Predict the structure.
Amino acid sequence: METLPNASSLILHHYDASPFSQKALMMLGIKDVAWYSALMPMMPPKEEIAALTGGYRGTPVLQVGSDIYVDSQLIARELDRLLPEPPLVPVVHGAMERMLVRWSDAFFRSGLGIVLGVALPFWPEEFRKDREHLFPDIDFGAAADNLVQARTQYRAHAALLDEQLSDGRSFLMGARPGLADVQAWPFIWMLRANLPDQATALLAGFRHLQAWETRCAAIGQGSRVELPPVDALAVALATAPLTLEKIDAADAQGLQAGQWVTVTPEDTRRGTVEGTVVVATPTCIALRRSHAAVGEVVVHFPRLGYRVTPR
Ligand SMILES: N[C@@H](CCC(=O)N[C@@H](CS)C(=O)NCC(=O)O)C(=O)O
């Protein structure tokens, strides 16, 4: 791969410890593609990603020139659009693997419950405060009491995976890995990496799952080249967004092109972005905005799980 990224290079803004980043890494591995890795800190200040997105601080975020794709849901769509083979979601699978996103979030929450129940007392104070802000719906004071329930939920989710694999298939939807595996494996990885004793105990007896886990880990990340985040911002500054206007005539909010809105995730406080509507479809909302460090960019969000508020 060339050492300097250009307008069509894939640049992933992320940090490796995040299971949602692992979703994006696994997608890039399935595609077996070359990409640039721009690392962000795990907590604010997160200046570069904030400049690029206009205030969304989360991981993963995919940048292609001046088009910025927030959330693993949209990253999956964009990667299949740019690089159709092999597909993350084969056409014959319809949208079922995308629908798994809510199941995937529930699996994450069970894993997070275990991590909080076991490891919270060892977290640095500053990190705990940041995560308490991030997850307003979680009672951190009750994390230890919730541990048994979180472990039970986690094993119930894992049992579904083992059952799905029990006919001897290699991956969740058949012979090839795809988005269904991406929705699931990062949360197995999360427990194995952070609390291996918990993982061993809770995945005990799930031999189909364990064999699948090894296959998923072997997929890798494609070819990764590290890129200083400021260089990623320079790519945005040197390019222009390619997204064309597209508005759903039956939009549930009646959104119009050029309208000023804010977009914010509904599940955690990953930040609010303000701009003018370029795309409003049932699955995507994209805003045009600008910043001195990146010039004009279009920031794309999924519609599912995000709130759009007219200003
Ligand atoms: N629905 C989002 C969820 C992303 C998410 O919650 N990521 C967490 C890390 S695991 C995050 O960004 N936390 C805030 C931060 O790292 O600053 C996606 O699929 O991309």
